[in-house]
Amino acid sequence: MRPAPKTYRLHIGIFGRRNAGKSSILNALAGQSVSIVSEVAGTTTDPVEKPMELLPLGPVQFIDTAGIDDTGALGTERIERTRQATERTDLAVIVVGDGHWTPFEQQLSDGFRQRQVPLVVVFNKSDLGDPSTEARQTLESAKQDFVNVSALKGTGIGALRQALLQTAPQDFVNRPGILTDLVPPGECAVLVVPIDKEAPKGRLIMPQVQSIRDLLDNDSFCLVTKERELRRTLDRLKVPPALVVTDSQAFLKVAADTPASIPLTSFSILFARFQGDLTEMVRGAMAIDTLKPGDSVLIAEACTHHPIGEDIGTVKIPRWLTQYVGGALKVEHTRGHDFPEDLSPYRLVIHCGACMWNRREMLSRLLQCRQAGVPLTNYGLTIAYSLGIFERALGPFPAALDVYRNTAHKPGARHP
């Protein structure tokens, strides 16, 4: 049985200075040796991730990171990896090993508060002494609770577990489903799944699998078909489905074969809502109208797979955008956790559905783009906009559709 995907795991990042005992804390929480522990500063280099169950919360992903005070050329690389880990952290743990609250901890704390990431502070090595008076006063003035722990002696670990459970963000605990609000219990969704060169052998891609499970959990049911069989599938149904969901690459054919009375959208647009902020990404898609030939566009892919054939990110979306804009764009690509700190060269960022990530990392990228004044949208919204079926694809989402209609009809605005 496969473990729960990262999408459904609460990402708990462990941060602090070198030799604070971050790896020892992770090992104590996991009840096993996950990270190498050493008295030598800087033992942890790349973040170490450990999936486990933290009951009664459920599946979590611990992230053990390098010291935020690392030095030298290699240390700078380690700090960058740690910074990237902050962007996918749902719940942050700052570990202090010497009882002193320094500018390093304060910088971490300020960053998490800015992103509204809940925080647990841990004073490790309590067997060697208590937190300093200054550290206590600083945290008390910020109304920040803390836990005293000795990872070496095993004391305080239970209190730390309880603090993690109590601090877990409610939007994770009570997270809404992918599409269950669109398909009531007892109703049917038709899922259109093209099988092409990029379809993995013997299995479905993550958004399709997650959507099927979401429907089953809601006591809804679904039919899965390829785009060539969609019309026959719909003709054989006695009752129209509550929703048709397609792979974005088959949008045009599926839209043509699905009666206008049946709501239609794509897996990618569902994930714009599930993993990010659909309304903001709708506004981002509308920025396509501002593009001119020669403008720079960044296409960001969460996965690090090697693209083949008519890859959607490297081939199809650039082609559709070129046709829509009327000339070639300067398209750059990033994959995995790499993402430019300076977004000023770009007129638009187009992101994949981020089905392999947790929602926090996608929200972090949205925040970074918002602060840089660069619109961000995703694959499905870009495809629907470029192909002229944007309004149809937003039909199941009235609030997002209103944003589009209210903006698209302003003087000077074009819409497909």
Strand and helix layout:
Blueprint: E1 10-16, H1 22-30, E2 48-54, E3 58-64, H2 72-86, E4 91-96, H3 103-114, E5 119-123, H4 133-141, E6 146-148, H5 157-167, H6 170-173, E7 188-192, H7 206-217, E8 221-225, H8 230-236, E9 243-246, H9 251-257, E10 264-266, H10 267-275, H11 278-286, E11 296-301, H12 312-325, E12 330-335, E13 348-351, H13 359-372, E14 376-378, H14 379-386, H15 390-393, H16 398-408
Parallel strand pairs: 1-3, 1-4, 4-5, 5-6, 7-8, 7-9, 9-10, 11-12, 11-13, 13-14
Antiparallel strand pairs: 2-3
Tell me about this structure:
- Helix content is 37%, strand content 17%.
- With 416 residues, the chain is of the alpha/beta class.
- The two termini are 45 Å apart.
- The chain has three domains: 6-173, 3-Layer(aba) Sandwich (Rossmann fold), CATH 3.40.50; 188-268, Rossmann fold (3-Layer(aba) Sandwich); 275-408, Rossmann fold (3-Layer(aba) Sandwich), CATH 3.40.50.
- The longest helix is centred in the first third of the chain and has 15 residues, at 72-86.
- The protein has helices spanning 22-30, 72-86, 103-114, 133-141, 157-167, 170-173, 206-217, 230-236, 251-257, 267-275, 278-286, 312-325, 359-372, 379-386, 390-393, 398-408; strands at 10-16, 48-54, 58-64, 91-96, 119-123, 146-148, 188-192, 221-225, 243-246, 264-266, 296-301, 330-335, 348-351, 376-378.
- The protein is globular and about 75 Å long.
- A six-stranded mixed beta sheet has the order 2-3-1-4-5-6, sandwiched between helices.
- The chain is built from 16 helices and 14 strands.
